[in-house]
Amino acid sequence: MFRFAYPIVFAALALLPLVVWWVSRRRERSVGYSSVSLLLDAGLEAPVWKRYGKLFLRVLALALVIVAIARPQTGQSEHKTYTEGVDILLVLDCSGSMQAQDFKPKNRLHVAKEVVKEFVSMREHDRIGLVAFSAQAVTLCPLTLDYAVLTRLIDDVDIGMLEDGTAIGVALATACNRLKNSKAESRVVVLLTDGQNNSGMIDPTTAAKVAASLGIKVYTVGVGTKGKAPMPVDDPVFGRRMISVQVDLDEETLTRIAELTDGKYFRATDREELVKIYEQIDMLEKTKMESETYIEYTDQFPWFLIPALGLIVFELVLGQAYLRELP
Questions:
Q1: Mind listing the pLDDT tens digit for each residue in 224-240?
Q2: Domain of 278: which CATH number?
Protein backbone atom coordinates (compact mmCIF):
# COMPACT_ATOMS: atom_id res chain seq x y z
CA MET A 1 0.00 0.00 0.00
CA PHE A 2 1.44 3.36 -1.05
CA ARG A 3 0.34 6.85 -0.02
CA PHE A 4 1.49 10.43 0.55
CA ALA A 5 1.03 11.76 4.09
CA TYR A 6 0.69 15.38 2.91
CA PRO A 7 -0.65 15.31 -0.66
CA ILE A 8 -1.57 19.00 -0.44
CA VAL A 9 2.15 19.78 -0.81
CA PHE A 10 1.88 18.82 -4.49
CA ALA A 11 0.17 22.17 -5.06
CA ALA A 12 3.66 23.65 -4.92
CA LEU A 13 4.47 21.89 -8.21
CA ALA A 14 2.22 24.43 -9.91
CA LEU A 15 4.74 27.12 -8.93
CA LEU A 16 7.58 25.51 -10.86
CA PRO A 17 6.65 27.16 -14.19
CA LEU A 18 6.74 30.53 -12.40
CA VAL A 19 10.19 29.71 -11.03
CA VAL A 20 11.40 28.85 -14.54
CA TRP A 21 9.97 32.10 -15.92
CA TRP A 22 11.50 34.20 -13.10
CA VAL A 23 14.93 32.64 -13.44
CA SER A 24 14.82 33.07 -17.22
CA ARG A 25 14.01 36.75 -16.81
CA ARG A 26 17.01 37.25 -14.56
CA ARG A 27 19.25 35.76 -17.20
CA GLU A 28 18.47 38.70 -19.51
CA ARG A 29 21.26 41.26 -19.58
CA SER A 30 20.61 44.85 -18.68
CA VAL A 31 23.38 46.14 -21.00
CA GLY A 32 22.31 46.48 -24.60
CA TYR A 33 24.46 45.72 -27.62
CA SER A 34 23.97 47.12 -31.10
CA SER A 35 24.78 43.74 -32.61
CA VAL A 36 26.04 40.32 -31.50
CA SER A 37 26.42 39.01 -34.99
CA LEU A 38 30.20 38.97 -34.76
CA LEU A 39 30.06 36.73 -31.72
CA LEU A 40 27.56 34.44 -33.36
CA ASP A 41 29.64 34.25 -36.50
CA ALA A 42 32.64 33.36 -34.40
CA GLY A 43 30.77 30.37 -33.01
CA LEU A 44 30.69 31.69 -29.48
CA GLU A 45 26.99 31.08 -28.94
CA ALA A 46 26.53 28.62 -26.05
CA PRO A 47 24.68 25.36 -26.77
CA VAL A 48 21.13 25.00 -25.43
CA TRP A 49 22.12 22.39 -22.85
CA LYS A 50 24.71 24.77 -21.44
CA ARG A 51 22.34 27.71 -21.34
CA TYR A 52 19.49 25.82 -19.64
CA GLY A 53 21.26 22.83 -18.06
CA LYS A 54 21.64 24.41 -14.63
CA LEU A 55 18.04 25.61 -14.68
CA PHE A 56 16.80 22.12 -15.58
CA LEU A 57 18.82 20.50 -12.77
CA ARG A 58 17.56 23.05 -10.22
CA VAL A 59 13.92 22.60 -11.23
CA LEU A 60 14.19 18.81 -11.16
CA ALA A 61 15.82 18.93 -7.72
CA LEU A 62 13.10 21.26 -6.47
CA ALA A 63 10.41 18.89 -7.79
CA LEU A 64 12.01 15.97 -5.95
CA VAL A 65 12.20 18.02 -2.75
CA ILE A 66 8.47 18.79 -3.03
CA VAL A 67 7.71 15.07 -3.45
CA ALA A 68 9.87 14.29 -0.42
CA ILE A 69 8.06 16.93 1.68
CA ALA A 70 4.74 15.24 0.73
CA ARG A 71 6.10 12.21 2.67
CA PRO A 72 5.68 9.19 0.42
CA GLN A 73 4.97 6.12 2.54
CA THR A 74 4.49 2.41 2.05
CA GLY A 75 2.20 0.54 4.41
CA GLN A 76 1.71 -3.07 5.40
CA SER A 77 -1.68 -4.08 6.75
CA GLU A 78 -2.06 -6.50 9.63
CA HIS A 79 -5.34 -8.17 10.54
CA LYS A 80 -6.13 -9.27 14.06
CA THR A 81 -9.19 -11.44 14.64
CA TYR A 82 -10.73 -11.95 18.04
CA THR A 83 -13.02 -14.95 18.47
CA GLU A 84 -15.44 -15.69 21.24
CA GLY A 85 -15.95 -19.44 20.87
CA VAL A 86 -18.81 -21.65 21.95
CA ASP A 87 -18.27 -24.75 24.08
CA ILE A 88 -20.56 -27.53 22.87
CA LEU A 89 -21.25 -30.97 24.35
CA LEU A 90 -22.79 -33.44 21.90
CA VAL A 91 -24.86 -36.02 23.80
CA LEU A 92 -25.72 -39.08 21.72
CA ASP A 93 -28.16 -41.89 22.60
CA CYS A 94 -26.75 -45.34 21.79
CA SER A 95 -29.48 -47.45 23.40
CA GLY A 96 -30.92 -50.51 21.69
CA SER A 97 -33.88 -48.62 20.24
CA MET A 98 -31.48 -46.53 18.14
CA GLN A 99 -31.07 -49.51 15.81
CA ALA A 100 -34.63 -48.95 14.50
CA GLN A 101 -34.45 -48.63 10.72
CA ASP A 102 -36.97 -45.87 10.08
CA PHE A 103 -34.11 -43.56 9.00
CA LYS A 104 -32.52 -44.27 5.65
CA PRO A 105 -30.11 -45.55 4.51
CA LYS A 106 -29.45 -47.39 7.79
CA ASN A 107 -30.57 -47.23 11.42
CA ARG A 108 -31.13 -44.15 13.59
CA LEU A 109 -27.73 -44.24 15.25
CA HIS A 110 -25.84 -44.53 11.96
CA VAL A 111 -27.69 -41.57 10.45
CA ALA A 112 -27.38 -39.55 13.66
CA LYS A 113 -23.60 -40.06 13.72
CA GLU A 114 -23.28 -38.95 10.09
CA VAL A 115 -25.33 -35.80 10.71
CA VAL A 116 -23.43 -34.99 13.92
CA LYS A 117 -20.12 -35.31 12.05
CA GLU A 118 -21.42 -32.89 9.41
CA PHE A 119 -22.33 -30.49 12.21
CA VAL A 120 -18.80 -30.71 13.63
CA SER A 121 -17.30 -30.01 10.20
CA MET A 122 -19.27 -26.74 10.00
CA ARG A 123 -17.86 -25.36 13.24
CA GLU A 124 -14.72 -23.24 13.67
CA HIS A 125 -12.97 -21.95 16.78
CA ASP A 126 -15.37 -23.88 19.07
CA ARG A 127 -14.44 -26.56 21.58
CA ILE A 128 -16.67 -29.61 21.17
CA GLY A 129 -17.00 -32.69 23.36
CA LEU A 130 -18.92 -35.97 23.15
CA VAL A 131 -21.02 -37.92 25.65
CA ALA A 132 -22.60 -41.26 24.74
CA PHE A 133 -25.33 -42.79 26.87
CA SER A 134 -27.81 -45.60 27.27
CA ALA A 135 -28.39 -46.88 30.84
CA GLN A 136 -25.17 -45.06 31.82
CA ALA A 137 -23.38 -42.08 30.37
CA VAL A 138 -19.72 -41.82 29.47
CA THR A 139 -17.61 -38.92 28.22
CA LEU A 140 -15.88 -40.20 25.10
CA CYS A 141 -14.23 -36.89 24.27
CA PRO A 142 -13.69 -33.86 26.51
CA LEU A 143 -13.95 -30.39 25.02
CA THR A 144 -11.45 -30.15 22.19
CA LEU A 145 -10.52 -28.26 19.05
CA ASP A 146 -9.14 -31.44 17.47
CA TYR A 147 -12.12 -32.19 15.25
CA ALA A 148 -10.33 -35.09 13.54
CA VAL A 149 -10.06 -37.00 16.83
CA LEU A 150 -13.62 -36.08 17.74
CA THR A 151 -14.91 -37.39 14.41
CA ARG A 152 -13.16 -40.73 14.93
CA LEU A 153 -14.68 -41.04 18.41
CA ILE A 154 -18.15 -40.32 17.01
CA ASP A 155 -17.60 -43.23 14.60
CA ASP A 156 -16.79 -45.45 17.59
CA VAL A 157 -20.18 -44.89 19.23
CA ASP A 158 -22.16 -48.11 18.82
CA ILE A 159 -25.17 -49.92 20.18
CA GLY A 160 -24.22 -52.34 22.94
CA MET A 161 -21.17 -50.42 24.12
CA LEU A 162 -23.07 -49.66 27.35
CA GLU A 163 -25.79 -51.43 29.30
CA ASP A 164 -29.11 -50.97 27.53
CA GLY A 165 -31.55 -48.35 28.76
CA THR A 166 -32.15 -44.62 28.42
CA ALA A 167 -30.73 -42.40 31.16
CA ILE A 168 -31.45 -38.92 29.83
CA GLY A 169 -31.05 -37.25 33.24
CA VAL A 170 -27.65 -38.87 33.87
CA ALA A 171 -26.46 -37.98 30.36
CA LEU A 172 -27.44 -34.33 30.76
CA ALA A 173 -25.83 -34.16 34.21
CA THR A 174 -22.61 -35.63 32.79
CA ALA A 175 -22.55 -32.98 30.06
CA CYS A 176 -23.17 -30.22 32.62
CA ASN A 177 -20.32 -31.51 34.74
CA ARG A 178 -18.01 -31.16 31.73
CA LEU A 179 -19.19 -27.61 31.03
CA LYS A 180 -19.44 -26.19 34.53
CA ASN A 181 -15.84 -24.92 34.61
CA SER A 182 -15.88 -23.61 31.05
CA LYS A 183 -14.96 -19.93 30.60
CA ALA A 184 -16.70 -19.69 27.22
CA GLU A 185 -19.26 -16.95 26.70
CA SER A 186 -21.77 -19.54 25.46
CA ARG A 187 -22.08 -23.14 26.71
CA VAL A 188 -24.38 -25.51 24.87
CA VAL A 189 -25.58 -29.11 25.08
CA VAL A 190 -27.13 -30.82 22.06
CA LEU A 191 -28.89 -33.93 23.32
CA LEU A 192 -30.23 -36.50 20.84
CA THR A 193 -32.43 -39.39 21.91
CA ASP A 194 -35.26 -41.58 20.63
CA GLY A 195 -36.81 -42.69 23.90
CA GLN A 196 -37.85 -41.74 27.39
CA ASN A 197 -35.92 -41.72 30.64
CA ASN A 198 -36.06 -45.19 32.20
CA SER A 199 -32.64 -45.53 33.85
CA GLY A 200 -30.36 -43.66 36.19
CA MET A 201 -30.78 -41.91 39.51
CA ILE A 202 -31.14 -38.38 38.13
CA ASP A 203 -34.44 -37.04 36.85
CA PRO A 204 -34.15 -35.19 33.50
CA THR A 205 -36.00 -32.14 34.85
CA THR A 206 -33.63 -31.93 37.82
CA ALA A 207 -30.65 -32.13 35.48
CA ALA A 208 -32.21 -29.39 33.33
CA LYS A 209 -32.56 -27.12 36.36
CA VAL A 210 -28.88 -27.68 37.16
CA ALA A 211 -28.00 -26.74 33.58
CA ALA A 212 -30.10 -23.60 33.84
CA SER A 213 -28.39 -22.59 37.09
CA LEU A 214 -25.02 -22.92 35.37
CA GLY A 215 -26.14 -20.88 32.38
CA ILE A 216 -25.97 -23.87 30.03
CA LYS A 217 -28.38 -23.92 27.11
CA VAL A 218 -29.78 -27.30 26.04
CA TYR A 219 -31.10 -28.16 22.60
CA THR A 220 -32.99 -31.44 22.64
CA VAL A 221 -33.50 -33.51 19.49
CA GLY A 222 -36.06 -36.30 19.38
CA VAL A 223 -35.65 -38.84 16.58
CA GLY A 224 -38.05 -41.47 15.28
CA THR A 225 -41.08 -41.73 13.06
CA LYS A 226 -44.51 -41.28 14.56
CA GLY A 227 -46.33 -44.50 15.23
CA LYS A 228 -44.38 -47.69 14.63
CA ALA A 229 -40.88 -48.27 13.30
CA PRO A 230 -39.14 -51.37 11.88
CA MET A 231 -36.73 -52.94 14.37
CA PRO A 232 -34.32 -55.83 13.63
CA VAL A 233 -34.39 -58.71 16.14
CA ASP A 234 -32.43 -61.95 16.36
CA ASP A 235 -34.88 -64.87 16.48
CA PRO A 236 -33.31 -68.17 17.61
CA VAL A 237 -35.55 -70.05 15.20
CA PHE A 238 -36.00 -67.77 12.17
CA GLY A 239 -32.78 -65.79 12.54
CA ARG A 240 -32.60 -62.04 12.13
CA ARG A 241 -35.88 -60.50 11.11
CA MET A 242 -37.74 -57.20 11.25
CA ILE A 243 -40.63 -56.44 13.58
CA SER A 244 -42.66 -53.25 14.10
CA VAL A 245 -42.31 -51.53 17.44
CA GLN A 246 -44.05 -48.49 18.87
CA VAL A 247 -41.97 -45.33 18.91
CA ASP A 248 -41.61 -44.40 22.58
CA LEU A 249 -40.41 -40.78 22.53
CA ASP A 250 -41.04 -38.56 25.56
CA GLU A 251 -41.48 -35.23 23.76
CA GLU A 252 -42.98 -33.58 26.82
CA THR A 253 -39.83 -34.10 28.89
CA LEU A 254 -37.53 -33.07 26.05
CA THR A 255 -39.55 -29.90 25.53
CA ARG A 256 -39.43 -29.17 29.26
CA ILE A 257 -35.63 -29.55 29.33
CA ALA A 258 -35.27 -27.09 26.44
CA GLU A 259 -37.64 -24.55 27.99
CA LEU A 260 -35.90 -24.62 31.39
CA THR A 261 -32.53 -23.89 29.80
CA ASP A 262 -33.64 -21.31 27.23
CA GLY A 263 -32.98 -23.84 24.47
CA LYS A 264 -35.25 -25.41 21.90
CA TYR A 265 -36.79 -28.82 21.19
CA PHE A 266 -36.66 -30.35 17.70
CA ARG A 267 -38.30 -33.44 16.26
CA ALA A 268 -36.88 -35.39 13.33
CA THR A 269 -38.77 -38.19 11.61
CA ASP A 270 -36.22 -38.75 8.82
CA ARG A 271 -32.68 -37.96 7.80
CA GLU A 272 -33.57 -34.78 5.92
CA GLU A 273 -35.29 -33.27 8.96
CA LEU A 274 -32.36 -34.22 11.19
CA VAL A 275 -29.90 -32.49 8.83
CA LYS A 276 -32.03 -29.32 8.87
CA ILE A 277 -32.22 -29.40 12.68
CA TYR A 278 -28.45 -29.45 13.13
CA GLU A 279 -28.06 -26.76 10.47
CA GLN A 280 -30.51 -24.61 12.44
CA ILE A 281 -28.62 -25.22 15.69
CA ASP A 282 -25.42 -24.30 13.85
CA MET A 283 -26.99 -20.97 12.86
CA LEU A 284 -28.36 -20.31 16.36
CA GLU A 285 -25.00 -20.85 18.04
CA LYS A 286 -22.58 -18.85 15.91
CA THR A 287 -19.17 -17.86 17.20
CA LYS A 288 -18.75 -14.12 17.74
CA MET A 289 -15.85 -12.72 15.74
CA GLU A 290 -14.35 -9.24 15.70
CA SER A 291 -11.66 -8.13 13.31
CA GLU A 292 -9.32 -5.16 13.49
CA THR A 293 -6.98 -3.97 10.77
CA TYR A 294 -3.78 -2.11 11.49
CA ILE A 295 -1.63 -0.43 8.81
CA GLU A 296 1.98 0.38 9.66
CA TYR A 297 3.50 2.97 7.34
CA THR A 298 7.20 3.47 6.56
CA ASP A 299 8.50 6.78 5.22
CA GLN A 300 10.11 6.60 1.77
CA PHE A 301 11.08 10.28 1.38
CA PRO A 302 14.86 9.54 1.35
CA TRP A 303 14.36 7.92 -2.07
CA PHE A 304 13.42 11.40 -3.37
CA LEU A 305 15.38 13.70 -1.07
CA ILE A 306 18.77 12.05 -1.62
CA PRO A 307 18.55 12.27 -5.44
CA ALA A 308 17.48 15.92 -5.07
CA LEU A 309 20.56 16.69 -2.97
CA GLY A 310 22.66 14.79 -5.49
CA LEU A 311 21.30 16.92 -8.33
CA ILE A 312 22.10 20.11 -6.40
CA VAL A 313 25.68 18.98 -5.80
CA PHE A 314 25.97 17.90 -9.44
CA GLU A 315 24.69 21.31 -10.59
CA LEU A 316 27.23 23.12 -8.37
CA VAL A 317 30.09 21.04 -9.71
CA LEU A 318 29.06 21.59 -13.33
CA GLY A 319 28.54 25.27 -12.59
CA GLN A 320 32.24 25.53 -11.80
CA ALA A 321 33.25 23.70 -14.97
CA TYR A 322 31.14 23.08 -18.06
CA LEU A 323 28.24 25.34 -17.15
CA ARG A 324 30.16 28.42 -16.00
CA GLU A 325 28.48 31.73 -16.87
CA LEU A 326 29.97 35.13 -17.54
CA PRO A 327 29.18 37.65 -14.82
A1: 988 888 888 776 666 67
A2: 3.40.50.410
